[in-house]
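Researcher: Quick test of sequence recovery. Tokens follow.
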């Protein structure tokens, strides 16, 4: 059966174990009829309350329907997915069905990151709606990736009138889920700097509940992901819906329960920062959002996202490859280094098995040397007082080092191109390149964060400048890895829609550079995980997950992040004990085993301060991380026990060949407590597996599980599971 089934004006998109259906009503409205488990015949229609004058109350029949693309006015009093100001200023629209088309595959979106797939992996249904009064056309694009039970939507508004219109709201995905007798819970990933992606759950109540980012970026505060689950959904059972926005700018996500029990889910650009003028004959394209359905709990929802984002979103040549083990000097030196210190760190790191040395913040600025975060940002010229002989000389010198396997040490560099310190040559030359607001010839006081301003990437001149300066560094020096940081939000927008124009500019810059330097391993960073979003995942394989490197906190941050993002896209580093952020002391093995849950493993340590024991243990841990890497990069993640639910979190990664690795932890010692069983998942029925030399039947590992003799705080265990 085709993944898109069309019967007259009834449409169903089929995932392997899910379906999404809607139809055109007799009036031409798109009405949603089902999103959930597989359904191969017409769902019984929601009892329709007849449209007539006898109906009392505020909601009209129109407002009581499950609307597929809720626009504004007409008696639907919920938040609209689209609001366009047109004519003399009205925001009422009525988009009615005009035509449809089914297209093999899934194309990208012009200027925006998007999922992609050929005819074997995806099918697209295009629905054209028209508002004849406003003379607007809305084209809804629905793509289904059946193997991932993923439904992707975006839309385009074409202005066929002879006047400008303004798009004021654009929720990429909107779905009116029918009344669920048992209710629903909403999930979000929220936090702040160094505490990203904490899983927050709440019961959906009547009315509006949601969260948003107004920072100009996806942000630490809330990730652009909304989950919706049945009240008893677990990692392995129950309904789980995930909605994920492929966008890096301000967003808003909400569930609104109306008077009749329908839950309207909206996720898209934040309407408070959308005021997008579309001239006659032009169009506006919304970012896309992905909705995934799982009938087997959150674990399966996450695996759908992981595979989709690895195989059909990320374009990086590194996405499916093992990453080099790196050493980053940030927590070892902060701004206080010279070329000898960096060389020395690289040399010692090569001796213990690292293969990439990363030079973090502080290497640039001549007139305004970057010796703290108060100067130099924007001036991407090496500071030769710090790095005598220049960057290239240092890179070449480090390149002659070999690690214990005889591989030359590669070099990586930190940049933060989108920002500028007022104390910089760039700001002196181009104060007009920063984002700021004013009126009547006066400026509001500019807002600084970390002593910096943000460049206005909506300006093509700024985009071109960044492409040139960063492109020049990468062409002139043998850089194998770039950490692209972003440490400030957009506090002050000249006009609301500059935020979106900035993001489009950012995509142009990042797309140009990553296309020009495809072999470089790019890593996103925004004071840690402040821009861990599917938008940027299109261009690079992953992101620095958090500036918090404390392993206990990291277990929470990484688990939350893994709800949506593949472990291959996360980076984890072993840092010093006591931890610089939390002051917590933890054993080396525990720190390393937590960092190994991520696709990109490294050290954020000064090798000059290693104890004799650390010197002995670190090479083995690095080799272990390399052995584990293929499981993390290619495997499926099973969250066997989550850290916010237990003292004994455990994670299993299963490779496509059926073998696995289990990483298990005891956070605190518990006196007089027996070890809880860790029950595995995802093994092949009937097969035998070898664990630590002992053979077990699959059902034993699933049912009885494994137990480990835990002793002490911050303990961890890594176990390979081989299929016999
Ligand atoms: C941000 C990053 C850190 C580090 C510093 C450098 O905070 O998240 O990893 O690169 O900037 O200033």
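Model:
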């Amino acid at each position: 059966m085709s993944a898109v089934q069309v019967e007259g004006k009834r449409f169903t998109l089929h995932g392997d174990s899910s379906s999404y259906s809607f139809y055109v009503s007799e009036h031409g409205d798109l009405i949603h009829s089902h999103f959930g488990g597989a359904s191969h015949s017409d769902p019984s229609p929601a009892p329709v309350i007849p449209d007539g004058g006898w109906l009392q109350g505020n909601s009209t029949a129109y407002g009581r329907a499950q609307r597929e693309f809720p626009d504004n006015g007409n008696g639907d009093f919920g938040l609209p997915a689209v609001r366009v100001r047109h004519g003399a200023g009205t925001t009422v629209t009525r988009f009615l069905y005009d035509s449809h088309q089914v297209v093999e595959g899934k194309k990208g979106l012009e200027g925006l990151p998007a999922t992609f797939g050929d005819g074997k992996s995806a099918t697209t249904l295009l629905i054209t709606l028209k508002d004849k009064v406003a003379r607007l056309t809305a084209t809804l694009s629905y793509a289904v990736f059946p193997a991932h039970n993923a439904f992707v939507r975006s839309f385009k508004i074409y202005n066929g009138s002879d006047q400008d219109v303004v798009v004021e709201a654009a929720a990429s995905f909107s779905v009116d889920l029918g009344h669920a007798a048992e209710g629903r819970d909403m999930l979000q990933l929220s936090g702040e700097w160094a505490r990203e992606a904490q899983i927050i759950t709440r019961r959906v109540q009547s009315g509006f509940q949601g969260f948003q980012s107004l920072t100009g970026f996806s942000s630490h505060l809330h990730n652009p992901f909304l989950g919706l689950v049945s009240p008893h959904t677990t990692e392995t059972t129950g309904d789980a819906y995930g909605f994920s926005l492929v966008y890096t700018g301000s967003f808003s996500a909400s569930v609104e329960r109306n008077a009749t029990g329908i839950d309207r889910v909206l996720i898209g650009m934040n309407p408070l920062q959308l005021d997008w003028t579309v001239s006659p004959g032009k169009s506006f394209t919304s970012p896309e959002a992905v909705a995934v359905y799982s009938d087997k709990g959150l674990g399966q929802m996450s695996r759908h996202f992981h595979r989709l984002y690895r195989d059909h979103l990320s374009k990086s040549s590194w996405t499916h490859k093992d990453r080099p083990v790196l050493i980053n000097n940030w927590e070892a030196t902060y701004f206080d280094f010279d070329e000898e210190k960096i060389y020395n760190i690289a040399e010692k790191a090569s001796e213990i098995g690292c293969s990439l040395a990363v030079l973090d913040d502080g290497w640039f600025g001549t007139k305004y040397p970057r010796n703290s975060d108060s100067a130099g940002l924007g001036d991407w010229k090496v500071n030769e007082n710090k790095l005598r002989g220049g960057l290239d000389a240092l890179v070449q010198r480090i390149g002659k080092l070999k690690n214990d396997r005889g591989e030359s040490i590669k070099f990586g560099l930190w940049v933060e191109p989108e920002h500028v310190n007022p104390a910089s040559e760039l700001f002196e030359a181009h104060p007009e390149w920063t984002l700021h607001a004013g009126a009547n010839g006066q400026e509001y006081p500019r807002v600084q964060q970390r002593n910096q301003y943000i460049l206005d990437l909506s300006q093509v001149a700024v985009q071109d400048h960044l492409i040139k300066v960063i492109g020049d560094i990468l062409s002139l020096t043998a850089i194998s890895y770039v950490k692209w940081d972003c440490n400030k939000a957009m506090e002050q927008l000249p006009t609301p829609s500059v935020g979106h124009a900035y993001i489009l500019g950012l995509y142009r810059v990042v797309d140009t550079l990553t296309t020009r330097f495809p072999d470089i391993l790019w890593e996103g960073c925004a004071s840690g995980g402040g821009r861990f979003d599917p938008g940027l995942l299109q261009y690079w394989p992953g992101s620095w997950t958090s500036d918090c490197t404390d392993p206990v906190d990291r277990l929470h941050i990484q688990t939350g992040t893994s709800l949506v993002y593949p472990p291959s896209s996360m980076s984890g580093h072993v840092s010093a004990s006591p931890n610089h952020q939390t002051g917590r002391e933890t054993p080396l093995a525990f720190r390393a085993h937590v960092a190994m849950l991520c696709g990109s493993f490294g050290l954020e340590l000064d090798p000059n301060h290693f104890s004799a024991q650390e010197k002995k243990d670190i090479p083995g841990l690095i080799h272990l991380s390399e052995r584990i890497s293929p499981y993390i990069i290619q495997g499926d993640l099973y969250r066997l026990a989550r850290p916010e639910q237990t003292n004994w979190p455990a994670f299993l990664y299963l490779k496509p060949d059926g073998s696995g690795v289990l990483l298990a932890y005891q956070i605190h010692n518990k006196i007089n407590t027996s070890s809880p069983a860790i029950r595995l998942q995802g093994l092949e029925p009937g097969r035998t597996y070898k664990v630590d030399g002992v053979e077990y039947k699959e059902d034993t590992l699933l049912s009885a599980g494994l137990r480990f003799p835990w002793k002490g705080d911050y303990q961890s265990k890594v176990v390979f599971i081989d299929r016999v």
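The radius of gyration is 26 Å.
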